[in-house]
Structures are given as C-alpha cells and as structure tokens.
Amino acid sequence: MKVLIYVRLKDTVLDPQxxxxxGGLRNLGFAEIENVKVGKMIELYISDVQPSDKxxxxxxxELRGHIKEMCEKLLVNTVIEEFRFEVVK
Amino acid sequence: MKVLIYVRLKDTVLDPQxxxxxGGLRNLGFAEIENVKVGKMIELYISDVQPSDKxxxxxxxELRGHIKEMCEKLLVNTVIEEFRFEVVK
Lengths: 89, 89
Known about the structure:
The structure is a homodimer.
Chain A: E1 2-9, H1 16-27, E2 33-46, H2 56-75, E3 81-87
Antiparallel strand pairs in A: 1-2, 1-3
C-alpha cells in the first residue's frame, strides 16, 4: 500500500525557499508567476497486512489514525506546517 | 490560478533522506512501514490573464507548456528526478 503525504508551510509562515524559486522563475522570464511555495511530498510504502478479525473499513480507519500519528510525531512540524494525505492503493 | 508540481527522485536513485525518515518511523514503533521516499511539492500561483484572442483550451495547452519548461529549466533535476503536475483552479 502506498500513502502520499503532502506537507506545506502554513500560509502565515514566511517561505524563503519559495521566494528564491520565485526570483529564479522571474529571471527566466516567467513574469506571470505571482508566488511560489515549496513543500514536501512523502511517500510511505506500507505492508498490506490485514488482520482477519477486522473489516476493511475498520482497518482503513486505523491506517488513517496511524498516518496522522506519524505526521504529528515525526514528519510534520505542526507549529509551522500543515498536512494532508491520500491512500493511493 | 494554482498549479501543484510534484517532484520525486526516480526509483533507481538512492534516497538517504527517505532512509533516515524510515529509521525514525521504525524507532517510533511503526514496523509496518517498508520504505519511505521524500520528494517536493511546489505550489505556483499564476496570474489569471487570458488573452481574448485565444480559446481556453489553447491557453490551457500553453500553460502546460510553460509549466513543463519551468520544471525542466529550474525546478527539477531531470537526471535524477521526475515530476507531474496538476492545475488546481
């Protein structure tokens, strides 16, 4: 199973890397760009073990709980960043 | 208009950052994670100027061309990375 986690800086937080990319794009002649923000995309590959005593709905719910926990404990700095994720397959 | 560009290392390229995150998640007890890859998500905010002498289809096509050019010239190292993008609104 593959999970994609998208992490981005909150809108109120300054993004110097984004500003640098914006400058670079403008220097290349792309004047139509108004702003750039640079975030992260984290791909998790998870083993497909589904306990037989659970419905697929319950295990999907559990998976979402696990991913949220991973994000909050390690992957995302929730003070300045926000995240969303999708289970791909 | 907002464009999301997703940049990831090609599958054949080693990802030390991903390996570090994998180790961190396993240390936290998430043993079900098999692999992690860390990529980038770049948000572009583009001014909505649509020339009146073009159909919306032609300008959408032009936009896709521009974004591809930005990726290949600045945003993506096409030797080791691959990208996909979506126009959000």
